[in-house]
Amino acid sequence: MPKGYLLVEIAVTNQEGFERYRAMVRPTVAKFGGCALVRGGNPKLVEGDRPAKGFVVLEFDSVERAMEWYNSPEYRAILPLRTENSIGRAFFLTGV
User: Fold this and answer.
1) Percent with pLDDT over 70 in the chain
2) Which residues contact 50 (CB under 8 A, 6 or more apart)?
3) Does the pTM exceed 0.85?
4) Average pLDDT over the chain, rounded to whole?
5) Residue 69 CB neighbour total at 10 angstroms
C-alpha cells in the first residue's frame, strides 16, 4: 500500500502561540503511526514566485491513516493553535 503524506506550507505569525501547538502535536502524530520527515526545511525557491517560510512533511502508512489523524478528536482539539498562529496551506499526498 502506498504511504500517505501531509504536506504543510507554513508561515508562523505568532511564535509563542505556535510553540504551544508544536509541543502538543507530536504525540498525536505518533499515536497514528506518523512521523515527521521535514520540519522547517530551510526552503530555497528555485521555481515560482511565492517563497514559503517553511514546510512540514508528515508520513503515515496511508493517506487514509493521515486523514484519520487529521480528523481525530486529539488533533482537532489543538488545530486552532496552528491556524490562529500561522498561515499556510495543507495537502494530503499519496506516495508511490
Assistant:
1) 99
2) none
3) yes
4) 93
5) 21
Mention the CATH class of domain 4-94.
alpha beta
Task: Tell which residue, 25, 18, 33, has the closest CA to residue 66.
Answer: 33
| Cell numbers given for 23 | 509541543
Angstrom distance (rounded) from CA 40 to CA 44: 11
CA–CA distance, 7 with 89 (Å, rounded to integer):
8
| Residue ranges of domains in the chain | 4-94
pLDDT in tens, 20-71: 999 999 999 999 999 999 998 778 888 888 767 889 999 999 999 999 999 9
Q: Which residue has the cell 521555481?
A: 47
Three-state DSSP at 48 gives coil
